[in-house]
Write a structure and sequence with these properties.
alpha+beta, Beta-Lactamase, Hypothetical protein af1432, 15 helices, rod-shaped, binds fe (ii) ion
Length: 433
């Protein structure tokens, strides 16, 4: 069933593809950014760690007698490392401390030229006696004035490989280095986003072309379904009264009443299918009874009633027309329960069948039949009012009364081509809109 136009599907497609593309691009960009940031952190730690090993190597020979560490020599070597500012573009050492195995300070050398050295000194010198003897490094990154500082506290070993002292270094990351790697990460994230968006844009014409093909196919399928509906409706009309006009009129009149009752569009779709096919079961009724000019005997009437189950058999064979089964099955039920085929009463009768019953009787009364002339508007409405609460739903009769004059003036007894055009407009409104 086509209830959404191609334009609406196209608009939905553009919106969804754009949204999904944007979300994937955002996710990809964020993932790349996180990955790069992690790489930066790892890189900084590796650099800081290698710097600490460098300190250990340069003073290893001074640690051979852990009980008698030479403060001046230590300070000299530490100062040399602090002076090597350009050996790493990532930053520089700004503070070095050396402690004996009891945690007592042997040497503490700050780089007094460093502008944030005072803040650095607030986080240093807190070595615990008996600190980690397993040789592990304690590494932490502390932000001072928005600049990350890598603090390493770790054991120092002598030339015999023995644990001989503890070292503490503070490595200040160069803001320029951070900016450079951040820019790189941002560029990579942006590149990832552009790639995803471009891929999405490239995929769009392919998806759109496939969608157009599917839309064309489903339009053809819908047209075929509609053709089945009209052919079946027309087939029974030809057997019953030689004209399609009754089907057209009852369908239009039923829809007008349904609109007056503000029924939902999908309910009106079912109503149209059912109204068109309401008497389709008459195909299976023998001519002698179907075309009998006089009154039917009880036996004949019982056979005639069989058009309801016969109609159900027919419409149940195809999913699309099956949606009209409520009218096919219940269009001869009466509000007071005296109808057939099931003897349902009141609201047990589906609403579209209750609507259709009014339209069907209204059309029969206002049309020419071999056994009668069309009734006047007044006589027709008197008969319908008599059936209020008996044959018909009283609320629906009231709603019908408010539009019946216009319906009578517009449709009563009409058989012209314009009737078909009007029905086509209704089908377009409810199935193609
Ligand atoms: Fe019928």
């Amino acid at each position: 069933m086509i209830s959404t136009s191609h334009t609406a599907i196209h608009r939905k497609l553009v919106f969804r593809i754009s949204l999904v593309g944007f979300l994937i691009a955002l996710t990809a960009g964020f993932a790349v950014w996180q990955f790069e940031k992690e790489k930066i952190d790892q890189w900084i730690l590796i650099k800081a760690e290698s710097g600490f090993k460098r300190l250990n190597n340069s003073i290893r020979h001074l640690l051979n007698d852990p009980g008698n560490l030479n403060r001046l020599e230590m300070e000299k070597h530490a100062a040399t490392i602090l002076a090597q500012r350009d050996f790493m573009v990532t930053g520089r050492y700004v503070w070095i401390g050396i402690y004996d195995l009891k945690g007592t300070t042997v040497a503490q050398v700050p780089d007094i030229s460093y502008e944030h050295i005072e803040q650095v000194e607030t986080i240093t010198g807190s070595i615990q006696p008996d600190a980690d003897r397993r040789g592990n490094m304690g590494i932490s990154v502390i932000k001072l004035n928005q600049i990350p500082h890598v603090q390493i506290v770790a054991p120092l070993s002598n030339e015999r490989g023995e644990l001989a002292a503890y070292g503490e270094t503070i490595f200040a990351i160069a803001p320029k280095a951070i900016a450079a790697v951040e820019t790189r990460a941002l560029r990579l994230a942006a590149a990832a986003m552009v790639i995803v968006l471009l891929t999405t844009a490239l995929l769009y014409p392919v998806i759109n072309s496939l969608l157009s093909r599917v839309s064309r196919l489903s339009a053809k399928l819908f047209d075929a379904n509609l053709a089945v509906l009209t052919v079946l409706g027309s087939a029974i009309a030809k057997r019953d009264s030689d004209t399609d006009a009754h089907n057209y009129r009852v369908t239009i009149i039923s829809v007008k009443l349904a609109e007056e009752l503000c029924l939902a569009a999908d309910t009106i779709q079912r109503l149209i299918k059912g109204a068109f096919l309401h008497d389709v079961g008459k195909i299976g009724i023998e001519d002698g009874i179907l075309h009998k000019p006089g009154r039917l005997t009880n036996e004949e009437f019982a056979v005639m009633q069989g058009h309801v189950p016969l109609g159900l058999d027919i419409v149940n064979k195809a999913e699309w027309i099956k949606e009209g089964m409520d009218i096919v099955a219940y269009h001869h039920e009466k509000y007071d329960g005296r109808g057939y085929n099931r003897g349902l009463a009141g609201k047990q009768i589906p609403e579209i069948a209750r609507i259709f019953a009014i339209a069907d009787v209204f059309d029969a009364l206002t049309s020419h039949r071999p056994y009668k002339e069309p009734f006047s508007f007044e006589k027709t409405m008197d008969i319908l009012q008599d059936g209020r609460g008996g044959h018909f739903d009283p609320d629906y009769i009231d709603a019908f009364a408010s539009i019946s004059r216009t319906l009578y003036d517009t449709y009563a007894g009409r058989e012209d081509e314009a009737l078909k055009s009007e029905l086509d407009a209704i089908i377009k409104k409810y199935f193609y809109a």
